[in-house]
Amino acid sequence: MIVKPQLAKLGLFDAKVPRYTSYPTAPHFNNDVGPDMFGDWISAIRPGSSISLYVHVPFCRRLCWFCACRTQGTQTDNPVIAYVDVLKAELDLLASRLPSGVTLSRLHWGGGTPTLLNPDLMRELAAHILGIVPLGHNAEFSVEIDPNEVDAARLDALAEAGMNRASIGVQDFDDEIQKTIGRIQSYDTTREAIDMIRERGVPSLNADILYGLPHQTKARMTESVQKLLSLNPDRVALYGYAHVPWMAKRQQLIPSDALPTPEQRLDLFDTARRLFLWDNYEEIGIDHFATRDDGLTHALKAGRLKRNFQGYTDDQAEVLIGVGASSISRFPQGYAQNAPATSAHTKAVRDGRFSTSRGHLFKDQDILRARLIEALMCDFRIDTAEILRDHDISAAKLTAMYQRANDAFDGLLQVTDDGLFIPPEARALTRMIARTFDAYDLSKAGHSSAI
Ligand SMILES: C=Cc1c2[nH]c(c1C)Cc1[nH]c(c(CCC(=O)O)c1C)Cc1[nH]c(c(C)c1CCC(=O)O)Cc1[nH]c(c(C)c1C=C)C2
Ligand SMILES: C[C@H]1O[C@@H](n2cnc3c(N)ncnc32)[C@H](O)[C@@H]1O
Ligand code: SF4
Q1: Domain 23-323 classified CATH 2.60.40.10?
Q2: Where are the domains of the chain?
Q3: Which residue among 53, 190, 345, 367 is least enclosed by CB atoms within 10 Å?
Q4: Which of the ligands is closest to the CA of residue 61?
Q5: Among residues 303, 257, 259, 288, which one has the least CA distance to residue 449?
Q6: Which residues are involved in binding S-adenosyl-L-methionine 2 (predicted)?
Q7: Omega before residue 112 within 30° of 0, cis
Q8: Could you tell me which residues are annotated as the binding site for [4Fe-4S] cluster?
């Protein structure tokens, strides 16, 4: 049994570590990758293969204070209409380089708030995307939905366009917490949005909630999770609130003295986790829960669970293209990120260029280390046979890497002939353990709390 003093000694309550939605992580991207290289990577996609597409909509009607996403507030439709035009032009640029016969395994609209598009804009955007890359067999089309910023007409448009997974932002149901994080959203508003989504035959629903919010207590967490469970989501993302006011300026409105300590964050996570497990959800990686028949659960059991910029996924496509300001693409050759500012992104696309402003070209052991970290984040284990099959490394060198990780954690991990295993009681340390396989200097990246 591992107890808090031991976790404290191992540094869990002081550490700042990445969430490893990519490796190397975004703060390590550099200028090695630009629009020409991005275009070449698109051209190199295998004809007839299946890829994923992420569409970023960096606008919201309200700007929640806790939010660290790249988005800007707007009360009018003008910037949104202009932005959809830019997305269409960017998609045309893609079309000019994309090999023939490529289809989508996943289409995700995220943000920001994609549901602030009016129904006509939604239809226009969906038609434009699918005219260039159609959805493949069994494809998933998911959309991030703000329950406060959606209605019947917009949900009709999304359902008609083929949305088959909705992802709603909940964060927390407690009134005082909602006031402190600048996001008011009643239970009824959330429930009505979910009812409307389900009435339209959308088969799968994800909800995002947060632990580690100001004024959150175990009792309040319990109540929020129970309210969420009453809505029967198929999947839940239980993210740790990342308080990074130096990066996300609007978080300066959140009083840091109302934040739980790292020790309390661990308790809050554990409180929510127990409720999901009690209600028969499966635990997926470090921060997701899913019903027994959800795709993530099947992927976990089959060893096919993957990690990408949206968190966990069962998508097997090796290429993910991100369109829109700040979006990141992943290729077998490396990562490419679009210009973060909408203005710079718009200018590049209007000039007929991709806006790629930085990225990372895979070299040396990057792909090996990316897989070791992904395996830990998804499966809490590294399977030596799989690594030796897919990567150029000897069993001895790999075991030495495991051993170094185990030494750094007082022998809490299990190293066997089969691989490295993080036992259940040490799983709070997973991001820190993953970091021991990260070869980049993390000291200047400004990451959030390890728990
Ligand atoms: C959809 C919302 C979010 C996305 N990532 C985060 C949220 C809330 C959280 C997040 N991402 C980063 C940090 C800070 C460092 C850390 O704790 O690891 C936080 C709190 C790092 C980060 N992720 C992306 C980038 C470019 C960075 C570096 C910092 C920066 O430039 O802001 C990529 C990225 N993450 C998300 C999106 C939509 C995205 C790029 C399009 C989701
Ligand atoms: C897309 C999802 O990202 C999560 N999200 C937004 N901001 C933060 C933050 N600072 N820390 C953790 N998660 C965050 C929300 O849960 C949202 O629904
Ligand atoms: S949480 Fe959603 S609605 Fe709120 S600011 Fe962030 S992206 Fe916008």
Answers
A1: no
A2: 1-22+365-438, 23-323
A3: 367
A4: 3
A5: 259
A6: 66-68, 112-113, 171, 183, 208, 242
A7: yes
A8: 60, 64, 67
Q: Looking at residue 32, what is its pLDDT?
A: 96
Q: Quick check: 53 and 104 in contact, CB under 8 A? A: yes
Tokens of residue 98, six digits: 């994309």
Which protein residue's CA is at the shortest distance from atom 13 of ligand 2? Answer: 241
State in Å: Cα 116 to ligand 3 middle.
11
H helices of 98-151, where?
A: 119-132
Q: How far apart are CA 413 and CA 424, in angstroms?
A: 10
- For ligand 3, atom 2, the nearest C-alpha belongs to 112
- CATH class, 1-22+365-438 region: mainly alpha
Task: Output the pLDDT for position 444.
Answer: 66
- Which tens digit of pLDDT belongs to each residue from 336-350? 999 999 999 999 999
Pick from 167, 205, 210, 238 the residue to mutate for probing ligand 2's pocket: most ligand atoms within 8 Å of its CB.
210
Q: How many whole angstroms from 148 Cα to the centroid of ligand 3? A: 11
Q: How far apart, in whole angstroms, are the C-alpha atoms of residue 358 and residue 81?
A: 27
CA-closest residue to ligand 3 atom 4: 64
Calculated CA dihedral for residues 352, 162, 327, 338, nearest 10 degrees:
-10
Ligand 2 atom, smallest distance to 242 CA? 11
Task: Check residue 447 and give its pLDDT.
Answer: 82
C-beta 248 within 6 A of ligand 1: no
Q: What is the ipTM of this complex?
A: 0.92
This prediction has a pTM of: 0.95
What is the edge-to-edge ordering of all strands in the sheet holding 414-415?
Answer: 381-383, 419-421, 414-415
Q: Residues in the chain with pLDDT < 50?
A: none
pLDDT digits (tens, 9 = 90+) for 241-291: 999 999 999 999 999 999 999 999 999 999 999 999 999 999 999 999 999
Report how far residue 354's alpha carbon sits from residue 351's, in angstroms, rounded to the nearest whole number: 9
